[in-house]
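anyone seen this seq b4? input:
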Amino acid sequence: MSSNLRALEPMRIVRDSGKPSRAEVEAAVRTIIRWSGDNPDRDGLLETPARVTRALEEAFVGYDQDPVAMLQKSFDEIEGYDEMIVLRGVRFESQCEHHMAPILGRAWVAYVPDGRVVGISKLARVVEVYAKRLQIQEKLTAQIANTVNDVLKPRGVGVVIKATHHCMTTRGVHKPDTDLVTSRMLGCFRENSQIRGEFLATTV
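predicted toks r here
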């Protein structure tokens, strides 16, 4: 085939399905530093690519964790307990999927058991797993509620999240005193206004 005909062939793009290597991520950080106008080889920035890579590993560790598995160990010896359980004010840090800017917030997670309860630390871990991914707050709220509901199969689940988004507090419209509140109510929390109101009163 002539070189002219080869030039007309569609370009074949080979995509690597695996994660980039640590060296590739560090090289990307060096590129960003150069793009910003600074010199990645100066003393103060020499170790920055490695530090940023380690920070990103911590920020996105949730992709390597299974929130469903965390809720699998539950307890059924609860002496008939069937009232609301609320874990209040679980602090979390996440990253906005639109700007990769920090989301800093707190989550309230409640459920009414139907014969099974789970260790309270596991609820906090579910919040943490989903937070440690690129996120929007609405999806984060739904993911937490849906997972608790699907695994524990309680009478109902309620989740409220209050968070500040640096993509609008430190950039863009620059409104530092604002926060976003989202909620998801399932089962008796959606159907029973008294239960929903009791839960919402714990989030004030």
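The first strand starts at residue 74 and ends at 75. The two ends are 73 Å apart (CA to CA). kinda curious what u guys think
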